[in-house]
Design a protein that fits this description.
With 345 residues, the chain is an alpha/beta fold. The chain is built from 13 helices and ten strands. The chain is globular, with a radius of gyration of 20 Å.
């Protein structure tokens, strides 16, 4: 398994990580994703470790804490071999301090996550969303104290806009607090918005991408094709409304090319989609999910090889769409590319 630096930090992370969104299986969304119990999760962890996948991602809101609980139990005996990534900010209840990233929520939430995960530290701790009602200085000052206490080691964010992330980084620099080194983002062949603002920001500021939903919310599994009905057992029947919107024109253009490349290479459609992401600038790790051993083994087959330049170009052409203002004016005009920021893979 290839390892990469997590942004501008000293931490190496595997190119693939396992997402624990299927662990626990509680609630309308996460129950539809999967219902992996401790024994099943333990087997998935063992397969990951055999393949060199040593980072596991979860969040307090996944199945209302059950995902962290199952992951913590499944990692018993392996804690010093792995990295645990979790997140906090989304509502865990209706109480006034059960959402957001206030000092009160962060302190109690981190302690609760540590308890559920059966550990004394979180390796990569991310804010699951931007909390506009809490001062950035309060958030970062609290994270600084949690790092100093040894409860968390590296910090990051998820689903931030460019201005929200840059405002936080500037405050961290001003006060000498730890900087965010990770941004957990949606990025796929059918969802490339990350490239327009967040990718150049990440490259300039040393923030590595941890990619969630690399298969476009389950649409790039190889089961969805042009002119075919959605399979009756697809989880998209229950979960599509929860995920990012997708243009069907983009989807089927991309699927057509993925199927062509699959026929040419003998690789599976999802393996090709994930491998494409691993060639993109700023990507530190791609988070894959699995409801069973078969899905996990399939996703693990996305590494250890590389798409050639011609196939990468075909995928790029099929998935590219014109960015919105203010990106498109110079993007469309010859000669203006020299103004683009340098991107380092």
């Amino acid at each position: 398994m290839e390892h990469r630096r997590l942004g501008r930090s000293g931490l190496d992370v595997p190119a693939l990580s396992l997402g624990a969104g299927t662990f626990g299986g509680r609630g309308e969304l996460f129950g539809a994703w999967g219902n992996t119990d401790v024994d099943e999760a333990r087997r998935l962890v063992e397969l990951c470790l055999e393949a060199g996948v040593t980072m596991f991602d979860t969040a307090d809101v996944y199945s209302n804490g059950a995902s962290e609980e199952v992951l913590g139990a499944a990692l018993a005996g392996h804690r010093d071999e792995v990295l645990i990534s979790t997140k906090l900010a989304l509502p865990m209840g209706d109480g006034p301090n059960e959402a957001g990233t206030s000092r009160a929520r962060l302190v109690t939430g981190v302690d609760a996550a540590l308890s559920r995960l059966r550990t004394d530290r979180i390796d990569v701790f991310q804010l699951h969303a931007y909390d506009a009602s809490t001062p950035v200085e309060e958030v970062l000052g609290t994270l600084d104290s949690l790092v100093a206490a040894g409860k968390i080691r590296y910090i990051g964010v998820s689903n931030f806009s460019g201005w929200q992330l840059m405002r936080s980084l500037a405050a961290a620099d001003r006060h000498g607090w730890p900087r965010y080194v990770a941004h957990q983002v949606y990025y796929s062949l059918i969802g490339r918005d990350y490239e327009w603002d967040l990718m150049p920001l990440g490259a300039a500021e040393g923030v590595g991408a941890l990619v969630w939903s690399p298969l476009g919310w389950g649409r790039l599994t190889g089961r969805i094709r042009r002119e075919s009905a959605l399979p009756p057992d697809s989880r998209l029947h229950d979960t599509a409304s929860f995920g990012p919107p997708v243009d069907d024109g983009v989807l089927f253009d991309v699927v057509d090319v993925l199927e062509q490349i699959a026929a040419e290479t003998g690789k599976l459609v999802p393996q090709i989609a994930i491998n494409w992401l691993l060639t993109r600038p700023t990507v530190s790790s791609v988070i894959v999910g699995a409801r069973n051993e078969g899905q996990l083994r399939q996703n693990l087959g996305a590494v250890g090889w590389r798409l050639d330049d011609d196939r990468l170009a075909r995928l790029d052409a099929a998935s590219r769409r014109t960015p919105p203002y203010p990106h498109f004016p110079y993007w469309r005009q010859p000669g203006f590319a020299r103004l683009d920021p340098p991107l380092v893979a």
